[in-house]
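Hi there. Long-time user, first ticket. I'm pasting a complex I've been working with (about 437 residues overall). I'd like to know whether the download I got is complete or cut off, because the file seemed smaller than I expected. Thanks.
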Amino acid sequence: MTATGLGDGLTALLPKLGGGALTGLTRLSGGATQEIWRFEAGGRALILRRAPGGDRVSGQTVGLEVEAALLAAAGAGGVPVPPVVHVLEPRDGLGHGFVMGFVAGETLGGRIVRAPPPGLAPQCGAVLARIHSIDPAGFPTLDRHSPAQLLDEWRALFRACDWPRPVFEAALCWLADRCPSPPAQPRLVHGDFRNGNLMIGPDGIRAVLDWELAHVGDPLEDLGWLCVNSWRFGRIDRPVGGFGTLDELLAGYGDGVDPAAVKWWEVFGTLRWGVMCAGMTAAFRSPDPGIERAMIARRTSETEIDLLRLIGDR
Amino acid sequence: MQDEPTPVEILGAVAAYLRDHVVPVTTGMVAFQARVAANAVDLVARQIAHGDGGEAERLRALLGRDGSLADLNAALAEGIANRVLDYAAPDVAQHLWAATLAKLAVDQPKYSGYLAALVEKDV
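Hi, the file is complete. Here it is re-exported in full:
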């Protein structure tokens, strides 16, 4: 759909968005799996997040309706998130998606690590603790996996790439030898809580974005993922997102977490990001190649060096 | 024997053209893609310059067999997965480090984990 066609649809929707005139409709970059549009309704800045072309829905994500429900539940649970203004309905004629409030701030990880607001790592811990206290019973369609099942799933995704990676095999052995038991109480896991998906202001986290990989499982997965070196943007000396220490993160999280348990999830997260990168080769070879996809695929090796550094000492 | 200039020289000129003459006169996605394209050309030039870095030879010695680089890597991967080979055994670990460092020298010579590994491994 063109911006004009989209504009007509949004104009018809204005009464549900608080009224006023539609202005400034612009497509934002970012959002590889979703379309993101910014606009104003009666001067209020809003964001439309919807499936590409309105109706192409990715099978690997939770679905935009569930994402909107997750945002609402997170907001109710004290997690900073953009307010959901309207979830698209079939009669809106705009496909799958939702409209949310625009939150100003910085998401570029490289800029955030240059001048992080004070206390960002403990704040990440506190926000994650709130996310993990949201009742997952309200989200029956989310994937539920034990750590062993997740490991099997990502091993299979890696093998499906059909390219030998001895370092990934070594990491899979390391992970299998130390695989945690299923959590006594499975929690809601954000699934992509990292530097780059957090809207940051001088006061800290303004919004937690991109809930499309949410699932139910071991909450420590989110803590380990936040420590993956690829999101430290060069600040390898600051394990948490390139801006903090693990002690700071765990102090904010509470709950007496064992750092060794977080390390397992950091290794798993590094492997997971590596498999995601490796999967870009198939996307690059599709009818829709892009040089950027080739370059992301060639980032797989960054996870191999990180894995060796992580598992090298056994 | 092919004539001069070398592939690496030609690719260097292509990358410089993209960076110095295309990126400055474009905006948005086109400028971004031109920058990515220049980085891709640089990567290919590094790979041509480095070759396989002795990887196949090391694999033949490690595995005691011959084969293509892909076959040898598949054999090593399978051996580690089946626990026939211990990934932490000194000879295996040494190969994994050498092969991975060689990849990074081509893919991302400025990556923080690579730079840290060079210091730690005293390469």
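A couple of notes from our side: The first helix of chain B runs from residue 7 to 22. DSSP finds six helices and no strands in chain B.
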